[in-house]
Amino acid sequence: MSTDYSKFASLSPFELKDELIRLASSKADRAMLNAGRGNPNFLATLPRAVFFLFGQFALAESRLSMSYLSPALGGMVRVEGIEGRFDRFVEARQGQEDADALAVAVSYVRDQMGLSASEFLQEMVEGILGCYYPTPPRMLPLSEKIVGQYVLREMVGGDIALDTTEFFATEGGTAAMAYVFNTMKQNGLINKGDKVAIGMPVFSPYIEIPQLEEYGLEVVSVQADPALNWQYPEHELEKLRDPGVKIFFCVNPSNPPSVKMDDASLAKIASIVKERPDLMILTDDVYGTFADNFRSLYAVCPRNTILVYSFSKYFGATGWRLGVIGMHKDNAIDVHLANLPAEEKSRLAKRYSSLTLDPSALKFIDRLVADSRAVALNHTAGLSTPQQVQMVLFSLFVLTDHEERYKKVLKNLIRRREAVMYRELGVSRSEDANAVDYYTLIDLEDTCRALYGEDFAKWMLERASTGEILFRIADETGIVLLPGGGFGTVRAAARASLANLNEFQYAAIGSALRKMVDEYYQEFKQKKS
Prior knowledge:
Layout: H1 13-24, E1 33-34, H2 46-62, H3 82-91, H4 97-112, H5 117-129, H6 141-156, E2 165-170, H7 172-186, E3 195-200, H8 205-211, E4 218-223, H9 234-237, E5 245-251, H10 263-275, E6 280-284, H11 297-300, E7 305-310, E8 323-328, H12 332-338, H13 342-351, H14 364-371, H15 385-399, H16 405-425, E9 439-443, H17 444-452, H18 454-464, H19 468-477, E10 479-480, E11 482-483, E12 493-497, H20 503-528
Parallel strand pairs: 1-10, 3-4, 3-5, 5-6, 6-7
Antiparallel strand pairs: 2-8, 7-8, 9-12, 11-12
Helix pairs in contact: 1-19, 2-4, 2-5, 2-15, 4-15, 5-15, 6-15, 7-14, 16-20, 17-18
């Protein structure tokens, strides 16, 4: 009896993945190739080595106090002379890659950024030891400056001064998104029935969150066009002029098309914002560091944009849970708060009255921090300090990599994987300067047309509507791909991550998919004869 695959249609792609994995791994004599996962199989080792080495220095600093009581007991950091002790620590290890990188990092903080080396070392030692609550809860002071320097350089190219932007360290980009939506709801910036415009296709949870009962938002799809290399057509961006659209949010570069917004789209959105200064924008730029000459919406609409960045993909650090929310100090969201009705302001004053004598002056970014801990626990809010230290060391690793060696290696790695997969599939890929290639969408219609013509492509589209193809691929080849429809695509497509398998495995995926298409083509010819 044939399986009714339509029953899986309501599942999120990430829940559907479990069913596909079950099928793909059902044969003992076959290796499963899971190209549905976004978790990379590469990671940045040097900043981790620096983290562990610095931990040794921090322990030595702690043992300068109170160890007379017990060899297992240490005390708090003695700031006096800490820079000299650090210099001796790295000099004794000169020539070790991690020690040299650590020395370069501190030199950059002191000599390039003009920050106090002693204060930086104190913050990092206390941070890596985890001996204090995060203070201030939003982000450690020097950590915020260093991470901010990295994020602004990578996301906006240095066009925005560091002292214009504030950052909130979060447990990854997904926590950042959850915090933003919650605080917007708590503060009456979005209400049930409001419209939220979403750049499609997009990471599927971002489609699902606004539709949850507690938000009840109306989703307005702003569809990227595959015929335009996954850029947003002007008529789609025109939807942002609707005054009923409270917020536009997108992933840039996109997930799953993996294409950065081009300059024309950025300029178009900036022009709409000039006419609609009330429009709020939320951009998730996690893949921006994989792109050439990337510019975030924050670069062109800083007052209206909430910038979310995660360290998870670029550094292979999904388990670390490291992300930041960035907001301009002079921003439209705070203007929204100031213009709320008096009754709403009174309600919010009561909500935040335990934090400040003037709750109405509390900025949105500080409300994010408070709401992340149900307000009452604001004093113990904040990302753990060891996590913040690793975030700083990741940032300094890139800031001191003047030849961008790490970036070049990663970009070449994922692009080679893409090239070999499509080569084995037998389909050529067009060059696109805006492509990032962390993921790829394998378009069913285009692929089948390129291989066997228009009639076969139409026949395959009819088969795609049954939900059969991805399950058959998983069952017969052991390959897991995710359905593009779950990410908001309007064409039948499958998402493959180019980050989590090795090159020979992507060749095997391409070959297996070609074999599957050939089998379908033979079935097509028989039915047409």
